[in-house]
Write a structure and sequence with these properties.
This is DUF1825 domain-containing protein. It holds the Pfam family DUF1825. It comes from Aphanothece hegewaldii CCALA 016. 77% of the residues lie in helices and 0% in strands. The protein is mainly α. It has one domain (3-102). Helix 1 (7-27) runs antiparallel to helix 2 and helix 2 (35-61) packs antiparallel against helix 4. The longest helix is centred in the middle third of the chain and has 27 residues, at 35-61.
Length: 105
């Protein structure tokens, strides 16, 4: 069975994508959130990023051709911005830490 044939993989990918879309839409209103709302938003983003890291690690460790192609596509896309996947995660971590410090988490 291929990596993408797994119902678990398909479900997790769909869930990650939907949650990311939802949080980015919600994030456009971040400046209007009260302190508790900001804390909740940051915690949800941290959780999402942790799950995304695990999901990407599955891709990296897989022997499946399509999984390897997906990793290479991500690397190619990020390289257009002068970034690696690790740098993307590091940047997101830095952003969330800065957001936390601004609300005296």
């Amino acid at each position: 069975m291929g990596f993408f044939d797994s119902e678990v993989v398909q479900h997790e990918a769909r869930q990650l994508f939907e949650e990311y879309q939802s949080l980015t839409q919600l994030g456009s209103e971040y400046g209007k959130f009260d302190r508790e709302g900001k804390k909740m938003f940051i915690e949800k983003m941290e959780d999402l990023m942790d799950r995304y890291r695990v999901f990407m690690k599955r891709f990296e460790l897989s022997e499946d051709f399509m999984a390897k192609m997906t990793v290479e596509q991500l690397k190619t896309q990020l390289s257009q911005f002068g970034m690696t996947p690790q740098q993307m995660f590091d940047q997101m971590d830095w952003t969330l830490k800065r957001m936390k410090s601004e609300i005296e988490y």
